[in-house]
Amino acid sequence: MINTQDESPKHQLKLERVGIKNLKTLIKIERNNKEYMHIPKINIFMDLTEDKKGVHMSRFIESITEILEDEVRGEHNSLEQIGKHILEKLKVKHSYISAEIEFESEIPLFEITPVSKKDTIEIHDIKVSLRNNNGSWIKILEVSVIGNTACPHALAVNKKGTHIQRAIGNLRIETDFDNDIDLEEMIRVVDNSFSSRVFTLLKTEDESFVVDRMHNNPFFVEDVCRNMLSLSFSKFKKSKIHAECLSQESIHRHDVFAEGAIET
Amino acid sequence: MINTQDESPKHQLKLERVGIKNLKTLIKIERNNKEYMHIPKINIFMDLTEDKKGVHMSRFIESITEILEDEVRGEHNSLEQIGKHILEKLKVKHSYISAEIEFESEIPLFEITPVSKKDTIEIHDIKVSLRNNNGSWIKILEVSVIGNTACPHALAVNKKGTHIQRAIGNLRIETDFDNDIDLEEMIRVVDNSFSSRVFTLLKTEDESFVVDRMHNNPFFVEDVCRNMLSLSFSKFKKSKIHAECLSQESIHRHDVFAEGAIET
Amino acid sequence: MINTQDESPKHQLKLERVGIKNLKTLIKIERNNKEYMHIPKINIFMDLTEDKKGVHMSRFIESITEILEDEVRGEHNSLEQIGKHILEKLKVKHSYISAEIEFESEIPLFEITPVSKKDTIEIHDIKVSLRNNNGSWIKILEVSVIGNTACPHALAVNKKGTHIQRAIGNLRIETDFDNDIDLEEMIRVVDNSFSSRVFTLLKTEDESFVVDRMHNNPFFVEDVCRNMLSLSFSKFKKSKIHAECLSQESIHRHDVFAEGAIET
Amino acid sequence: MINTQDESPKHQLKLERVGIKNLKTLIKIERNNKEYMHIPKINIFMDLTEDKKGVHMSRFIESITEILEDEVRGEHNSLEQIGKHILEKLKVKHSYISAEIEFESEIPLFEITPVSKKDTIEIHDIKVSLRNNNGSWIKILEVSVIGNTACPHALAVNKKGTHIQRAIGNLRIETDFDNDIDLEEMIRVVDNSFSSRVFTLLKTEDESFVVDRMHNNPFFVEDVCRNMLSLSFSKFKKSKIHAECLSQESIHRHDVFAEGAIET
After folding, report:
1. Where are the domains of chain D?
2. Taking a C-beta distance cutoff of 8 angstroms, is the pair C49, C13 a contact?
3. N or C: at which end does chain D have fewer Cβ atoms within 10 angstroms?
4. Over the range C242-259, which residues count as b (16 or more CB within 10 Å of their CB) and which as e?
5. pTM for the predicted model, two decimal places
6. Cβ separation of D13 and A230 shorter than 8 Å?
7. At the topology level of CATH, where does D113-264 sit?
8. Chain A environment of C201 (Cβ under 8 Å)
9. Phi and psi (nearest 5°) for A191?
10. What is the mean pLDDT of each run of 10 residues along chain A (264 residues)?
11. What is the ipTM of this complex?
12. Domain A1-102 class?
């Protein structure tokens, strides 16, 4: 049997990450008595030593596939847990020093509108990554949430009002695998860092509430970014916390941006 | 010599459009004493009769390449003119009934800020298409311009102010090849249809001007769309005019949208 | 109460489509004893008469939200059926002449690899649209499927082999609401139109099967497009059928493309 | 005069990067007796101390604008040189510790087809970044080039041939500002690392040349990545070199990927 992958490469150089990008599959998660159905985009990588020409790519897929089949037994309650099982299974097939898996997906939150008290479903982008480096595990949780900024400088200098725009808040937490952090709580932190959080459904009275709130909380992207870090500080322990805010300016063609980090 | 393309296909069906997508090249245009350098994305198609297995794709590229070489002789003053020469050259190589070429690019406009009177460069997305159907020529010019909407309903019901957001206006004009229409004039129409036009550079006094103007011209997407149609009506004769506005709501995760058309 | 939307607009022009774009929500479908969970991107539009300044955008969301709440009673077995209920509900709130709803989502198919007979999950992009024009309903079903093309001309003229590349097949069917057409069957048609269909998991023996099949079925994009139309002809009755193939050439930076249509 | 930006923020936290993203403008470069016209996407950032509420965003734009006006005097021969002048000008207006500018653009290369010896223009994506950290300058040059991979394992085990696909090679070099490295030479390295380089125009005899070359140089993504590192090793001195290859598999829906780095 021919095993081209195990041959010696022409240029004997170690590679940091070799694997698969943009694989899509179906994953079911049960968490807090709720069932989540994901069709995530998956990236999965491992290192490759200088003496091997290639990795056996089909083994990555097999590790994923076999774990997904095991899922019916109901043992997975988070994407990071499934990720850990996949990387453990991969370790048996491929002897790696470091490996990494990333899931990009969306989660729905069931919310109530602020004044009219109606049901509304809000969908947020999430990314869950897991890294194994020489046996130790690190997880990275990331949420990307839509909100807005109302410019405090324009509000201070103009009688008529200020400029307001959609903004995207990004919160990333790197921590130990066992440090239980909820994506919903991360989304809540970003929601509460904007001039106002936003809703898919807004009756007229809700819309007025949001408009008032934006004018009562005028924020630069720098403020939103610091709000995220400050709110995270008290909630997420033993973590590296990274926050970004991108504001799609209504008075410019370009965006404004702020980025910061703290450790807890 | 083997000519697989000229063989008879298994399923003898006519195809409407066969060709090349997403080709990039370098094109130089001289117009109104200004020189424009484009690296457009080009799509080029023709119909294929039911008795031919395929088109000779390299002939498309050759038609483009040969015309671009001719350019040094300085005879082209618009993308549609280059497009016409390419489709004429293609007709000699490939006998088609209908053919089409599209150029997606950007153009820079040199502007002055509204109060501080400083220089600012504004870049806009454009698309120029040319269709030959049985010998007759139609051109389609399209500009996509960034501006904003300030909600008139929220302004009417709230004391604090309204919600404002970035919006994208899209104006498309279909007309005879010989009807000379300027992309800059189309951009001006879209600029003037928003609550306010926007600028890359804004000093504090310019920013106040734009903020005031947005509050003085509160528009729904429907208003922006009708403004574009109404302003176009008096400017662009003998044309099919199509207008769209997409507003990236600051109070929602989704966008709102309006689309309309008139004929002049 | 102020109703800015019902005021008379400055420019009294009818608009073809006014509504919401890129709204995301959670939808559960039961079909053929399988449960599908969608987080679709939804667009929803209606026409607007020349005497109304704007539409009440929140009524669109309410129509969607109220239908989704009704869903627990289990009466929906397709996205088009949910879409029909949403547009019917919208008709009560907003008196329109024409309206339209679009769902962009993904569906997972549970497949078996060709030789090793292992389980594999394949995810495909789908789009389901529904239009009401003056009371009559039309639905448009669309699938976008990944496969490949192996060039027959290069295979004929070269001893070493041919050039092969990833290709995307797009099949769209426009038909009466009551004409029951399965998205899975449409995906199967596209799969069978390529040089070979592809799989997420491929053991070495499966990979050889796919490589052989690509070389045994060398196709231009024109062939793939005609294959889709020809296979659709016998399967999908009383429909307008539109097929596209885009081939991401391995020997060029650009793509090649073919597009055709038939009516059954 | 109100200067909201200089007020003390509520949460006194230092921010790593504050600035502008996705700004587009027009830039002219003269280099090696050729004139390049860029419409780059520009990102520009600086750090923000914990005692300042915000940065003056318009000063970023002014720094860019003023430098671009100076350009007519003809002193710029690279994007990194313009970037350095912009960051120096920004330092005068804003006293930062670290700052960064990024230009994303495209460059055209004028090439000759391999057998038919015809002219062809090839467009490549580039990114040029410049960082100032406490007075010291680092530049990062990046090129993204399209080519292909022909699988060596499938070629070894199948009689009919192998699977081939489009691939994207990415080469990034981090080095001192004064280390003169040519983007064209970086593109050449990536071109020569694939199974074959590709061309926009290919006559039949050129196509055969490319098809042959792909079959004579079967490479995994790992091989392409190592080829880039190995070829760079001898060419680019005193640099951190980072290489990636993404292969858009023709037999799968997903991509395969390899990434590595060396220092010279």
Report:
1. 14-103, 113-264
2. no
3. N
4. bbbbbbbbbbbbbbbbbb
5. 0.96
6. yes
7. Urate Oxidase (3.10.270)
8. 58, 61-62, 65
9. -50, -45
10. 89 96 92 85 96 93 84 72 93 94 96 95 97 96 98 94 98 97 97 98 95 98 98 97 98 97 97
11. 0.94
12. alpha beta
